[in-house]
Amino acid sequence: MKKCIHIFNGPNLNLLGVREPAIYGTTTLSEIQSRCEKRAQEAGYSVSFFQSNHEGELVDLIQAARGNATAIVINAAGYSFYSVAILDALKTFDGSIIEVHLSNIHQRDKFHRHSIMSTVATGVICGLGPQGYISAINAVIAMSE
User: Which domain holds residue 93?
Assistant: First the structure.
């Protein structure tokens, strides 16, 4: 299988840089994508980077990653806390799954503290801002060696 990391981003992440910068910072999603592509390329990986505000589209993308991706890095955003459909799709993926949150969800209000995606994730990274995506890629690379 080709060394490819699929990175999935959930609702409202297209507004990074302008949406609640005190929580999520000022880095845009396109800047994160560029950094991810650069880091992956340095290690001989390719990246497929997606963002959707639609739950069903994310389910379709996760299902399509089966057999095509080494790993999934996912920031399901608001879906992290209640989307059984995304959770069930992730359960069908055989590779590593790294869950990423820009903020430290454990310091947030009670609705943002418990991600159901964590139950199927190989690892969880939260609170590192955009660097969390690079940490996730580094983890995938290390686990693949």
Answer: 4-144
